[in-house]
């Protein structure tokens, strides 16, 4: 299983061609701070600090596939409006082929606006207009799809959010056409009647969607999910049924029986778009012909990364490779980035519209306080890069008997943490010079600093001060070990 996943992620996934047909949307996140209640009405006042847009709905599935390095072709509707222009820009940045997109007259592009305060969603505002493609537009979609199938398309995803793109007629014709070319169709379903998905290779409902389909609540236990899923699979002539079950992971039901794969326990910040992540990994792995055990493990790994982030998030191939390698203990060493490499990586992330967080420290003996602090720092953006004090720098700051662990060991341990993307070493007393090269979006400092006291603050978009966890310190641990 381990080597199947490694081979797939390192090479095979980049050769897979995927068509995503569905309801394309724009997701907008408005983030702020809530410190008071409005004098006009008993509602919180959100002081807006930032705003960002990401692909939503079927566009998020397409963006997830593109982030995994698949070759992605998108088909859906958008309008001649500002949200349509944003959606186009986002998909272009992701490297998605939009030759199948339909620009519909007198149509408002679907947009979801989420208001967040202290990283918690406070409200959602939806702009949507349900619209079915015309007969002429359906013909265009089928011609576009057949052209891709003739050129070696590996898998088709129908991403149905109930906004009108996936009609019964179009869905049935897509599945029939794909069957002619022996290409699998995977469906992210909507509603309780799945007749229009009849004959698909696989459907990926969550537990609630499966419950809606059978008309009763399904308990989240293996036997109940397996029994309900078996009936649904047979009723709609599906090859596989993939049921996502939150902390219980994923269950795959096929003619051979059921496979249950539990997810690893972890902090969950936001489940928005996690189903699209599972679909992207499952579809690409199915196209590559991987064993089902490996497919489910990969999907679980990707979902775990997605829910650890705030907001809709596209899991990148390098992140999944790191998570997969940790599982199999393949990574036996880690080489910290050079300053130039770190600068290039930060620039690359920022050009993709992703928020980069930086923090620094000695991190000599990792303890719970460190891990909590790093998890909090990582939750503020999309990537966390850690500036690590060199051995000589630690000696100057902490004394001749420190560090206990070498910079090689410390960087290896930090890079092995899920919350840390990369590590870069600096030898100065402060990371100010390093920050002048990296210029992160957010500079995080721990303790009781004031913002104006933080070295290198002028090179960051903003500075955040996070409190340390009381009762944990490396110096305290060393004293305790010596005393005991």
Automatic annotation (TrEMBL):
<dbReference type="InterPro" id="IPR004821">
    <property type="entry name" value="Cyt_trans-like"/>
</dbReference>
<comment type="subunit">
    <text>Homodimer.</text>
</comment>
<comment type="pathway">
    <text>Nucleotide-sugar biosynthesis; ADP-L-glycero-beta-D-manno-heptose biosynthesis; ADP-L-glycero-beta-D-manno-heptose from D-glycero-beta-D-manno-heptose 7-phosphate: step 1/4.</text>
</comment>
<dbReference type="InterPro" id="IPR014729">
    <property type="entry name" value="Rossmann-like_a/b/a_fold"/>
</dbReference>
<keyword id="KW-0418">Kinase</keyword>
<keyword id="KW-0547">Nucleotide-binding</keyword>
<feature type="domain" description="Cytidyltransferase-like">
    <location>
        <begin position="358"/>
        <end position="451"/>
    </location>
</feature>
<dbReference type="InterPro" id="IPR011914">
    <property type="entry name" value="RfaE_dom_II"/>
</dbReference>
<dbReference type="GO" id="GO:0033786">
    <property type="term" value="F:heptose-1-phosphate adenylyltransferase activity"/>
</dbReference>
<dbReference type="InterPro" id="IPR011913">
    <property type="entry name" value="RfaE_dom_I"/>
</dbReference>
<dbReference type="Pfam" id="PF01467">
    <property type="entry name" value="CTP_transf_like"/>
</dbReference>
<feature type="region of interest" description="Ribokinase">
    <location>
        <begin position="1"/>
        <end position="327"/>
    </location>
</feature>
<comment type="pathway">
    <text>Bacterial outer membrane biogenesis; LPS core biosynthesis.</text>
</comment>
<keyword id="KW-0548">Nucleotidyltransferase</keyword>
<dbReference type="InterPro" id="IPR029056">
    <property type="entry name" value="Ribokinase-like"/>
</dbReference>
<keyword id="KW-0511">Multifunctional enzyme</keyword>
<feature type="binding site">
    <location>
        <begin position="206"/>
        <end position="209"/>
    </location>
    <ligand>
        <name>ATP</name>
    </ligand>
</feature>
<feature type="region of interest" description="Cytidylyltransferase">
    <location>
        <begin position="358"/>
        <end position="484"/>
    </location>
</feature>
<dbReference type="GO" id="GO:0009244">
    <property type="term" value="P:lipopolysaccharide core region biosynthetic process"/>
</dbReference>
<dbReference type="InterPro" id="IPR011611">
    <property type="entry name" value="PfkB_dom"/>
</dbReference>
<dbReference type="GO" id="GO:0033785">
    <property type="term" value="F:heptose 7-phosphate kinase activity"/>
</dbReference>
<keyword id="KW-0808">Transferase</keyword>
<dbReference type="InterPro" id="IPR002173">
    <property type="entry name" value="Carboh/pur_kinase_PfkB_CS"/>
</dbReference>
<keyword id="KW-0067">ATP-binding</keyword>
<keyword id="KW-0119">Carbohydrate metabolism</keyword>
<feature type="domain" description="Carbohydrate kinase PfkB">
    <location>
        <begin position="17"/>
        <end position="314"/>
    </location>
</feature>
<feature type="active site">
    <location>
        <position position="276"/>
    </location>
</feature>
<comment type="similarity">
    <text>In the C-terminal section; belongs to the cytidylyltransferase family.</text>
</comment>
<protein>
    <recommendedName>
        <fullName>Bifunctional protein HldE</fullName>
        <ecNumber>2.7.1.167</ecNumber>
        <ecNumber>2.7.7.70</ecNumber>
    </recommendedName>
</protein>
<dbReference type="GO" id="GO:0005829">
    <property type="term" value="C:cytosol"/>
</dbReference>
<dbReference type="GO" id="GO:0005524">
    <property type="term" value="F:ATP binding"/>
</dbReference>
<dbReference type="GO" id="GO:0097171">
    <property type="term" value="P:ADP-L-glycero-beta-D-manno-heptose biosynthetic process"/>
</dbReference>
<comment type="similarity">
    <text>In the N-terminal section; belongs to the carbohydrate kinase PfkB family.</text>
</comment>
<comment type="function">
    <text>Catalyzes the ADP transfer from ATP to D-glycero-beta-D-manno-heptose 1-phosphate, yielding ADP-D-glycero-beta-D-manno-heptose.</text>
</comment>
<dbReference type="InterPro" id="IPR023030">
    <property type="entry name" value="Bifunc_HldE"/>
</dbReference>
<dbReference type="GO" id="GO:0016773">
    <property type="term" value="F:phosphotransferase activity, alcohol group as acceptor"/>
</dbReference>
<dbReference type="Pfam" id="PF00294">
    <property type="entry name" value="PfkB"/>
</dbReference>
């Amino acid at each position: 299983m381990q080597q199947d996943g490694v081979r797939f992620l390192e090479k095979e996934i980049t050769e897979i061609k995927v068509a995503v047909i569905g309801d394309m949307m724009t997701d907008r996140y408005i983030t702020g701070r809530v410190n008071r209640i409005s004098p006009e009405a008993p509602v919180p006042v959100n002081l807006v600090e930032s705003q960002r847009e990401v692909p939503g709905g079927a566009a998020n599935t397409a963006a997830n596939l593109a982030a995994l390095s698949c070759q992605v072709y998108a088909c859906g509707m958008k309008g001649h409006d500002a949200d349509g222009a944003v959606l186009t820009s986002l998909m272009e940045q992701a490297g998605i082929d939009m030759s199948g997109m339909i620009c519909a007259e007198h149509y408002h592009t679907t947009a979801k606006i989420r208001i967040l305060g202290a990283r918690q969603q406070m409200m959602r505002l939806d702009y949507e207009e349900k619209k079915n493609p015309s007969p002429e537009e359906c013909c265009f979609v089928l011609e576009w799809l057949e052209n891709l199938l003739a050129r070696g398309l590996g898998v088709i995803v129908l991403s149905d959010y109930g906004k009108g793109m996936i009609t019964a007629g179009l869905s049935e014709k897509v599945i029939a056409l794909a069957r002619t070319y022996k290409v699998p169709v995977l469906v992210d379903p909507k509603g309780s009647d799945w007749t229009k998905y009849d004959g698909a290779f696989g459907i990926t409902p969550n537990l609630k969607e499966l419950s809606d389909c059978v008309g009763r609540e399904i308990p989240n236990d293996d036997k109940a999910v397996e029994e309900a899923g078996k009936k649904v699979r047979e009723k709609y002539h599906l090859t596989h049924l993939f049921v996502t079950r939150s902390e219980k992971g994923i269950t795959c039901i096929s003619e051979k029986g059921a496979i249950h794969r539990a997810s690893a326990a972890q902090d969950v910040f936001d489940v928005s778009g996690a189903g699209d992540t599972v679909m992207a990994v499952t579809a690409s792995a199915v196209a590559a012909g991987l064993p089902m055990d490996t497919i489910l493990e990969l999907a679980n790994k990707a979902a775990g990364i997605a829910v650890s982030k705030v907001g809709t998030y596209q899991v990148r191939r390098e992140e999944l490779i790191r998570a997969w390698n940790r599982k199999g203990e393949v990574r036996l060493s880690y080489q910290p980035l050079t300053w130039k490499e770190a600068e290039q990586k930060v620039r690359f992330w920022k050009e993709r519209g992703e928020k980069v967080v930086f923090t620094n420290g000695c991190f000599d003996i990792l303890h719970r306080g460190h891990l909590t602090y790093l998890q909090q720092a990582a939750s503020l953006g999309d990537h966390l890069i850690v500036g690590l004090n060199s051995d000589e720098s630690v000696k100057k700051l902490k004394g001749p008997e420190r560090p206990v662990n070498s910079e090689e060991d410390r960087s290896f341990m930090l890079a092995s943490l899920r919350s840390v993307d990369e590590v870069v070493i600096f030898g100065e007393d402060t990371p100010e010079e390093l920050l002048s090269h990296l210029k992160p979006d957010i500079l995080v400092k721990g303790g009781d600093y004031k913002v104006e006291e933080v070295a290198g603050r002028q090179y960051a978009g903003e500075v955040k001060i996070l409190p340390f966890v009381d009762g944990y310190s490396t110096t305290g641990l060393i004293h305790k070990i010596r005393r005991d």
